[in-house]
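User: Fold this one for me? It's DUF1579 domain-containing protein.
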Amino acid sequence: MQQAKVLKEHEFLEDLVGVWDVSAPEMTGQEPWTEIVRSLHGIWFVAEGSGQMPGGGAATTVLTLGYSADKGKYVGTWIGTMMDHMWVYEGEVSDDGKVLNLYTTGLDFSDANKLADYREQIIFHDRDHRTFNSAAKQPDGSWKQFMEAHYTRKP
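Assistant: Here's what I get for DUF1579 domain-containing protein.
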């Protein structure tokens, strides 16, 4: 197998590296979460988040992201201690280069016996600020956002 090479698509993910304060509207009054993102030789990026869930209880999340030259897509996974489902992503960057769209399939939150399609977005506002949101695909093909978190780089 040939050694992976760092491509411009991998370099796009470099702005994730660092330590971040994470806040969300449902976390009002709580301490912000912390996310630490590191690079594995510029090929893979690992983000570990930790904090308190709304309503109480400690939680940890792990996001992995990279770029598959074979697929021509960004790929990744997400796991969290609040559920036993591993979310598997494929996606692409928007034409303006500011939004990473990640698509996945998982349990339908309104009917645990069904699967649903989801889109998660990492939106880069500048080097020190980004947003993460999640949306569920609706029957008409539109996306309905149900979660948003704001990330601020720690100095």
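One thing worth pointing out: The two ends are 40 Å apart (CA to CA).
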